[in-house]
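hiii so um. not sure if this is the right channel but i have a protein structure encoded as tokens and i wanna go backwards to a sequence. like what aa goes where. can anyone help
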């Protein structure tokens, strides 16, 4: 994931009170992936943040559609509009 800032900015994070079993599992998974524990945890954080950002964008899109979508069309209207678009695109 590419972060939207110029240059390199870094900070140290510390995770406290991780039980021994979880720490061992994380170290083993990092080793299995041939990564350092630090790189593995950074990858997990980046992946989680990206997933949540995608979910927020999707939710905002659904909200916008719900607010702006016309509610008076019939199935026939929808089918006709779809047929028109397919014809214009040369796919129908």
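sure thing!! here u go:
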């Amino acid at each position: 994931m590419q972060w939207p800032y110029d240059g390199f900015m870094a900070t140290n994070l510390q995770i406290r009170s991780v039980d021994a079993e979880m720490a061992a599992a994380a170290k083993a998974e990092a080793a299995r992936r041939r990564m350092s524990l630090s790189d593995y945890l950074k990858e997990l954080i980046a992946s989680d943040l990206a997933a949540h950002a995608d979910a927020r964008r999707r939710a905002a899109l659904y909200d916008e559609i719900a607010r702006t979508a016309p509610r008076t069309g019939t199935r026939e209207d929808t089918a006709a509009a779809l047929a028109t678009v397919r014809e214009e695109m040369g796919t129908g």
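oh and The mean pLDDT is 87.
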